[in-house]
Amino acid sequence: MSRSEKELLEGMRRGFDEAAELFSRSGKPLQERTAVHGLLRVLGIEHADGDIIKQGPEPVDVWFGDARFQVTEVMYPARPRDREIRERAVRARKARRFDELMERGTITSDPMEPQAVQQLVAQRAREKAGHYAGRCAGIDLLVYVNLHGYHLYPTGPFPPAPELEALGWRSVSLILERFAIVLTADRSAPAFLCYHAGKGVEWGGLDSVFDWPP
Known about the structure:
By secondary structure, this protein is of the alpha/beta class. It has helices spanning 3-22, 28-43, 81-94, 114-131, 162-165, 191-196, and strands spanning 52-54, 62-64, 67-76, 110-112, 140-147, 150-152, 171-175, 179-185, 201-202.
């Protein structure tokens, strides 16, 4: 194996180990801050690393200005992502050649309409509201929908969401890899959330919106 191949293999090992740590239980605070960073980035809200603060009390996960986010992820279809990443990290540590980490496959992606995505958000919002019974007021719910093999198309319009308003959250926002929308926000929500309520925003960059850790 050439020196460049060894360096590439070692880099992939570090990357898989870092991903395994990020998506472990101990990495949850960074996951939550990264989701908020992605939302702000798509909405065009300027911010620095130190502006996004991991802080409670429950059900608050992350503070940003006067926003108080409860952050949750929906994986669709449901799958054990942490196990997938751990298995890849083990394979990388055992590999002696770069080609041992190559996987054959066909990249496909099916369209998923706004109403179907919103239904996933509504289901999770109900689950969380039930878990935090009576403690949703003043809390901004952020749902990261992690689609595997699907993409949002068309990107709008999203239907009205009276069922979300009835759950008691101050606001409910959705973040995807390349799209964000504030689905509902009452008048007490932070101004930037109220301003973007009902306005879907597509990410125009070529890179991932989740470009953390910096």
